[in-house]
Amino acid sequence: MILCYSYVDIVMNMTSRCIVFPCAIIVITAVYMDTFLSTTVYKIVLTIIYCIMDHMIRPHYGIKRDLFVAGVAIIASLFSYFEIVDLAINKGEDRRILEKKSTTDLLTGIYNKLSFEEKCNEYLKKRKPGARCILFIFDLDNFKEVNDTYGHQTGDNVLKKFSEILQSYFHPYDILGRIGGDEFMVLVMGEMPEGFAEKRCRSILHEFKTARINQVSGLTCSIGIVSDNDCASFSDLYKKADEALYVAKEGGKATFNLFEKEKSS
After folding, report:
1. Which of 60, 77, 160, 161 measures 20 to 30 Å from 10, CA to CA?
2. Which residue among 105, 139, 182, 228 is the active-site one?
3. Which residues fall within 8 angstroms of residue 179, CB to CB, at 6 or more apart?
4. How far is the C-alpha of 76 from the C-alpha of 166, rounded, in Å?
5. d(C-alpha 137, C-alpha 2), whole Å
6. 182 catalytic residue (yes or no)
7. How sure is the predictor about 92, in pLDDT bands with cuts at 50, 70 and 90?
8. Burial of 260: CB neighbours in 10 Å, binned 0-12, 13-18, 19+
9. 218 closest CA partner among 167, 157, 142
């Protein structure tokens, strides 16, 4: 098709420069950018045929001009190829950045509430019957006083620090999320050693309390925990963990409460 249009272009412009062929060479680059090597060979073959055809139709025009125009077109197509690839890479990176921003909490870098719930529901649906999981809900005690006394920038630093503490005590494949202003949740799946939840909570409480963030120290949080061995939905786990958190708050804060223990007592 390219050669046919180029033939018509040559016949209609016996004494002037043709533009169909060089433009077509550049267009090929955009259409067949996934096969760079084979497309380049294809363009060289087309160029040779085009130059022979052009020289036979109008020998007076000069083969050097044909070769020059064809060569410029191939070089321009190479530049076009790399520019298109560069734009595609940048577009892909922008898309990944937007996707990350839509799924994560911008302040702490962990999942936001919606993404956390989606990941948990997806995880729970895939687990085998009887597989164990533990859901933690963390609520920072008296966080409003931190904002009111030391300012929101210090409050943001407290949230970042607490997120870092959680990430240091849980594995990368556990699901961590910030579900509210000063509320965080973690879902742990799989087999865990005896007393895992209690030991983990004590360690987190200790590190958070001994951390110094700007002028603030002695921070605490309350923790609700639910351990589950059936295929409960995330909403069921959330409800139980929230009830356990309420008990921890009512018990004086700066502590943790396990729903199963509360339920059985």
Report:
1. 77
2. 182
3. 112, 113, 116, 137, 185
4. 53
5. 66
6. yes
7. low
8. middle
9. 142
